[in-house]
Design brief:
Blueprint lengths: L3 E5 L4 H12 L3 E5 L3 H11 L2 E2 L7 H10 L5 E4 L17 H29 L2 E5 L12 H20 L4 E6 L6 H7 L1 H4 L5 H14 L4 E4 L2
Parallel strand pairs: 1-2, 1-4, 2-3, 4-5, 5-6, 6-7
Helix pairs in contact: 1-8, 3-4, 4-5
Protein name: Short-chain dehydrogenase
GO cellular component, one term: membrane
Keywords: Oxidoreductase
Length: 218
Amino acid sequence: MTKTALITGASRGLGLALARSLAGAGWNLVLTARGAGDLERAAAELGATAVPGDVTDPEHVRRLATAVPSLDLLVNNASDLGVTPLPPLADYPLAAFRALLETNVTAPLALVQATLPALRARGGAIVNVTSDAATGAYEGWGGYGATKAALEQLSNVLAAEEPGVRVWWVDPGEMNTRMLADAVGAEEAASAADPAKVAAALSDLIAARPASGRVSLQ
């Protein structure tokens, strides 16, 4: 039986690399991201369904849930870095922090709520992509890290509340992505892991279906 995955933030970086890996394993894919052009090119490459839009938009969340009446895997990968250059918490603009919470915490929870009936029916799984910034005290990363810490605790409680669904909160480690380059510069980002390598490890995790919990891939 063909399995279906919904991946957010799927037009580049880890989301696109994971989509390629799962497509190679025969998964049916529904992909979403804000950049319609890049997303549609990715979907065409992989034979996937593209549903462009912003995961903070409740109407877009409803469209995504409608697109996956049968669902085996939800990957909450879409994320925002926040203000750059990364400011100390003493100077973090509160309006920007609220927006960051909306993207990195509220939107994943909204998608979980919208797709849980389909996931329960299939004994499916949820991957919430987090970061070591959720647990480490890195200067400048307080805003982003706080949102990822919140996402980790949501995942932790969700795993306890939904024993029939696997829930993994996954720290992929540093990857050579545009987001990391925006944070630390392109030169430093270039020395980080290839997203394709990390996606392969994440695909192995999804196939193995271990117990719910926090997973570090590097």
